[in-house]
Amino acid sequence: MTTLTALCATFATAVLLIIIGYIAYQGISSLSIEFITDTPKPVGEGGGIGNAIAGSAMMTALASLIGLPIGIAAGVYLAEFGKNWFGNIVRFVADTLIGVPSIIIGIFIYTAIVMPMGRQSGLAGGLALAIIMIPIVTRTTEEMINLVPHSMREGALALGAPQWRVSWNIVLPAAASGIATGAMLSIARITGETAPLLFTALNSRFYNFFYDQPMSSLTVQIYNFATGPFEVEHAMAWAATLLLVGLILFINIVVRFLTRKKY
Amino acid sequence: MESKISISDLNFFYGKEQALFDIALEIPHREVVAFIGPSGCGKSTFLRTLNRMNDTIPIAKVSGTVMIDGENIYAPGTDVVALRRKVGMVFQKSNPFPKSIFENVAYGIRINNIHSSKTDLSNRVEKALRDAALWDEVKDRLTTSAFGLSGGQQQRLCIARALAVQPEVILMDEPASALDPIATQKIEELVVELKRQYTIVIVTHNMQQAARVSDRTAFFMLGKLIEYNPTQKMFQNPDEKLTEDYITGRFG
Question: How far is B24 from chain A (nearest CA, A)?
Answer without folding.
Answer: 24
